[in-house]
Amino acid sequence: MRALRQTAIEIAGILFTVVAFWIPFYFIFVNAGKDAQESSLLNLSWPSTAMFWENIKTVVAARDFMLIRAFYNSTVLTVVSIAILVVLCAMAGYVLQRRSDRATPVFNFLILAGLIVPPAIVPTIWVLDGIGLFKTMSGLILVEVALNFPFAVLLYKGFMAAIPREIDEAAVMDGCGGLRLFFRIVLPLLQPVTATIIVLSSVTIFNDFTNPLYFLPGSDNVTVQLTLYNFQSQYVTQYNLLFTNILLITIPPLLLFIFFNKRIVAGMTAGSVKG
């Protein structure tokens, strides 16, 4: 009876995955290969005449190749944000896990508050404008780092608990300074959780729609998600081109998840297993 119940749960989980993820992806895929009239029906039928390549060429060339510029901007945003995020969060997680004084509970509370308190758009714009970073890539990078900072710090802190303090003490006795100890010894030991943070945060930042819309306006600063506006308006929506655009900007995060799925799971569970 228990085996039968477990099998039923697994089948239900698979069916839920198919309904929640694969059917919408199939819907996007088939409508990306239709012409404008057929795609306006918004059904799951296979296109009568496949126009995948024609739609892709139209989407890429739209508005002076805006999609290519958007991919460049999103790549720069993602890579720089992840680099800063990994270094800062690894340092913060290391310090928070190793030190225990009166200030530690305060810092832990602030980290948790960052997960709970929702971001405020208008005050953030006011601050960025005051320091001259509004409508700049640097300002948006700082926003992305700040929003992903609490979650990454908690992951690093949990993983650091599995690394013995004796490693730190031995390195200090051998003459390692603080930065050398961190970058030469501690950071390489954090590779599993670092891979998890890189993949999860990359997908989050690359797919971000709201923050680039508010903090980095302008056609020259467009990111991949904002290119969806190219093919929809109040009166006319080119669904075949819209779905083609969605398909193109979905492929990189999808491939990232497929190839690094095991690393994500291993990084998020390694600390608890070793602990």
Automatic annotation (TrEMBL):
Stretches assigned to the ABC transmembrane type-1 domain: 71-260
Keywords: Cell membrane, Membrane, Transmembrane, Transmembrane helix, Transport
Domain of life per record: Bacteria
Transmembrane parts of this sequence: 7-29, 70-94, 106-128, 140-160, 181-206, 239-260
Subcellular location per the Swiss-Prot or TrEMBL entry: Cell membrane
One matching Pfam family: BPD_transp_1
Protein name: Sugar ABC transporter permease
Species this chain originates from: Paenibacillus cisolokensis
